[in-house]
Design goal:
It contains ten helices and five strands, in the order H-H-H-H-H-E-H-E-H-E-H-E-H-E-H. By secondary structure, the protein is α/β, with parallel strands linked by helices. Helix 8 links the parallel strand 3 and strand 4. Helix 2 packs antiparallel against helix 3, helix 2 packs across helix 4 and helix 5 packs across helix 6.
């Protein structure tokens, strides 16, 4: 980073310049600067939801697009997501107080027998960065963990990750259990992980296979929009 950039005083920027600077800081994974930017906007009377959507989600969209296009890679995206989390820590309690809308709620976890979590963590962070509420179950999750949490949290989306060919079939176990309980239609089911492909996603009855975190966000958004439209039409 150049000395010149070190000297930027965020408080001296107008709102528009500050948001632009926050986009750059997010892109560079500068957590402290993001926290400072969020606090300045709140002090200037911005609503928490405005800060989230205009500054953080707006910035993470650029990160997501560049990740999808192969300009950014996993380490940089994790840094950006970590910076965003710093800002989210301030906004979350405020958003809860104001009852601000979220796009939707997702329960995500790696399936039983599998302890890989980098891909899942990335999806989780990118989804939060896009304005979703995310409940992360961690690794090695049995059917009950997904379904009990999805019910308790009134989730819209269930996301499953697997990195081993041996654990992939467990995704079908979860979906089959949803079907047998008559709750399959209540959730959007997204699956992902290195050994999976679109055919596998279709074969087990998932709503979509997501190649990476950027695709997961886009897919979740479009399926949530469809779900809202169906509700409105019904």
């Amino acid at each position: 980073m150049s000395d010149e950039e070190d000297d930027i005083n965020l408080t001296e920027l107008n709102d528009e310049e500050l948001v632009e600077q926050m986009f750059d800081d997010l892109y560079d994974g500068l957590r402290d600067e993001i926290i400072e930017g969020v606090n300045i906007l709140l002090e200037r009377g911005w609503q928490p939801y405005e800060v989230l959507t205009n500054a953080l989600v707006g910035g993470m969209k650029i990160v997501g697009d560049d990740f999808r296009d192969g300009i950014l890679f996993v380490p940089e995206v994790l840094l950006a997501a970590n910076a965003m989390k710093g800002g989210m820590a301030i906004l979350k309690p405020l958003l809860a107080e104001t009852g601000a809308p979220t796009i939707g709620k997702m329960v995500i976890g790696t399936v039983k027998g599998d302890i890989h979590d980098i891909g899942k963590n990335l999806v989780s962070m990118m989804m939060e960065g896009a304005g979703f509420e995310v409940v992360d179950l961690g690794i090695n999750n049995a059917v009950e963990a997904y379904l009990d949490t999805a019910a308790a949290e009134k989730a819209d989306i269930v996301g499953m990750s697997a990195l081993l060919t041996t654990t992939m079939p467990y995704m079908k176990v979860v979906i089959d259990q949803m079907v047998s309980l008559g709750i399959r239609d209540e959730y959007i089911v997204l699956v992902g992980g290195a050994p999976l492909n679109e055919e596998f996603g279709k074969a087990i009855g998932a709503d979509a296979y997501c190649r990476d975190a950027a695709v997961a966000v886009e897919t979740a958004k479009s399926l949530m929009a469809r779900k809202h439209n169906q509700r409105a039409a019904g």
